[in-house]
Amino acid sequence: MTDPLSPHSVPGFRFAGISAGIKKRGGLDLALISCDADAAAAGVFTQNIVRAAPVELAHQRVQAGVARAVVVNSGNANACTGAPGTQAALDSSAAVAAALGVAPDLVLPCSTGVIGQVLPADRIANHADALVAALGADAADFARAIMTTDRFPKVVQCPVETSTGEATLLGIAKGAGMIHPDLDTGLPQATMLAYLLTDARVNAADLRGALLGASQVTFNACTVDGDTSTNDTVLALASGVHAGIATQASLRRAMEQVCGELARLMVRDGEGADHSVAITVSGLSSSEDARRAAYTVATSLLVKTALTGKDPNWGRLLAAAGRSGVRFDPNQASIHVGDVLICQHGMGLGADAEARATAIMKTESYGITLSLGSGPHAFTYTTCDLGHGYVDVNAGYRT
Amino acid sequence: MTDPLSPHSVPGFRFAGISAGIKKRGGLDLALISCDADAAAAGVFTQNIVRAAPVELAHQRVQAGVARAVVVNSGNANACTGAPGTQAALDSSAAVAAALGVAPDLVLPCSTGVIGQVLPADRIANHADALVAALGADAADFARAIMTTDRFPKVVQCPVETSTGEATLLGIAKGAGMIHPDLDTGLPQATMLAYLLTDARVNAADLRGALLGASQVTFNACTVDGDTSTNDTVLALASGVHAGIATQASLRRAMEQVCGELARLMVRDGEGADHSVAITVSGLSSSEDARRAAYTVATSLLVKTALTGKDPNWGRLLAAAGRSGVRFDPNQASIHVGDVLICQHGMGLGADAEARATAIMKTESYGITLSLGSGPHAFTYTTCDLGHGYVDVNAGYRT
To answer: Which of A71, A269, A377, B240 could form a disulfide with B201 if both were Cys (CB 3.0 to 4.6 A apart)?
Structure first.
């Protein structure tokens, strides 16, 4: 289901990814999703108040609930670029709209890459016809063209239950650094970009409702480095070419599955990371407390470096929860790595338990659970280890 | 003033630092401050709800406003050690009290090191007589014996104005990792330990008032890794052997100077760090907003890795402020590295300015200022770069 090399498609949509000379080092950097007809559309966007020009424009355009295309460039975030940046977003999306023969307002722009440089709109305009000519049913080149520091493309597909059988939900995302989404789901969520495409029939309001609900427990519950981006954008489009109508509930179930796996893949691909780790905090009296404690543990540098060291350092885990601002009795705390209990009643269980936990910590993906009391609420935050690779990528990113 | 190799002393206090076999790799690990008579005493402690046994005990004992001694061990934090840990803190401080010939309640215990192992109280008891026999006027061995991952001892001295001339304030601290103090100053502040000793005459209430005020703008405004420790403790003792009485205001001035420099030294000695950087956010409408924005920039991994790369990446600086939750107009933002303006009206000023900023970023200590509006409030948070050294220290700490 997540093999990006196998063909992925969804009825009503065509995809392209080409090279337009935007990335300094070359490679695919201009991508397009085109709907054959008007699609229902919804979006959630970064809550960082420093928002890139394409975020402002896509946010404004998606309000209409309808779209025909999504144009994405990598290599340049077009963030902190003032009026010239806004003009570049308008010009580049207009050029793609003209090549597609659709109204500019129906084209949603996204950018990801270096902050502080105006997008070279002329390169996109010069490649608009070639981009449209490259459109085809398979999403593979699209998924590759939106990558920046990603080591692998991220494509996930699952069925959506409708009134007349199963439709498809296809999710495509990029993101490896500046990953700590804080999307405006109405509740509190790098550059991550994600696209959720379905052929099911669904109205824009239900599409948006499903997207907000699913984002809050998936994208808004994952972190690489704690740095919420200026460009985070998740767009959902429904072509409606399937005969069946999807309910908000059935669409949300499919979205939670697809977005959850895309979030895990982004974290697994976290810059320099070798592991994705699901941090669950349970036993608290509110879900807000559980989210806050899980967030604090998931973003702790001492925890993330312990994950790199395959060190079941329960003291760091417990200390991170202890500074979260959430009240609990440390003497009631217990901690599992996978299914191995390493801390009970706030105290360690010794070297044998820790050796078994270390074996689990050598695997690619695993879970850590902190049970902090007898309350009914739990929350899971997905994080990764922090190693030398992260420093290499980010201490030399612009050079 | 900060040369730890020159003799540092303050009338009324004697110091010792010896090896008691607590650190796995040997070295000085048991330290003592002894007052020749009852000293006025005050303390501030970590707000992490996971608090080590010695923190609980010192907190309880310092309420009396009087103390005779402070005993510190490095190599073992005695945190998350339950009832056996509490007993170890009681037993070890009682042994030192007996060797000094003072009541146990007058001895304030502190521990720093690995979490989750019960302090070997017998080793401290067995070395109590040797510890007392080593007492002398110079604080150098004390400053070395409290170190854990520190690369250098931290001692700062300055005069205190009193009713009859100048007395002395001597500050001694340790701390390099798990540094993000959140001391209970009544306002919102790793393991850091700091001791502030004066010969001035001051009552315990004024001593505490000065300590709270000074800690809030110094220790509580510095960070290495964002991880507030289970063991952070700052103790202030006044021997009163000087003839002059210090006011709370004069003592606070001296404390702000000494604590500010100790905080800067801890951050400069941050695990794997090469720079201490004062992040100032100005132009906001409240000091809480200024603190929150400065904190968010100072703890951003993308900012800290850019500091390692000597990269004046103003986009990351601005994006971090933008996710802080503080409202400002990004188009009004300007950013200086040292005295070099690199961003104005929310946009970059180009390669020449950045080259001059990079030259400043190669120096050991410098400042970065983000002016986010026209409001009257500013706050400065001291942070360090995050490099490979931090990963090396923390991915392998217990192994």
So the answer is: B240
